[in-house]
Amino acid sequence: QLIESGGGTVQAGASLRLSCAASTRTLSDFALAWFRQAPGKEREFVAAIDSSGGRTSYADSVKGRFTISRDNAKNAVYLQMNSLKPEDTAVYYCAASQMGWVPSTQGSDFRSWGQGTQVTVSS
Prior knowledge:
By secondary structure, the protein is an all-beta fold. Helix content is about 0%, strand content about 45%.
């Protein structure tokens, strides 16, 4: 089970750090990702990281502002979000694949999901 934390309500320009930890599954062998879903919109890919932490990918909309990282010793993945914008408002989900790297932005390629954490950015 994946459990996200760190969401909240902030003003535009602020930062938040999301965390996701696994309670029963070892994540160190698997690629991890963050997705988000805004009200009335489809779920979209945000960022992914491979099992070693050496390879990452980002959606164009967050490049240069968000950083994904992981700590395999803590069985956790993080999303540092800087310079937040109102359009970043969404429920953010972490997801785990069954591969060391997933060259995909499709949610269907990730098998385990957290329950989500709300991020609200006010203007």
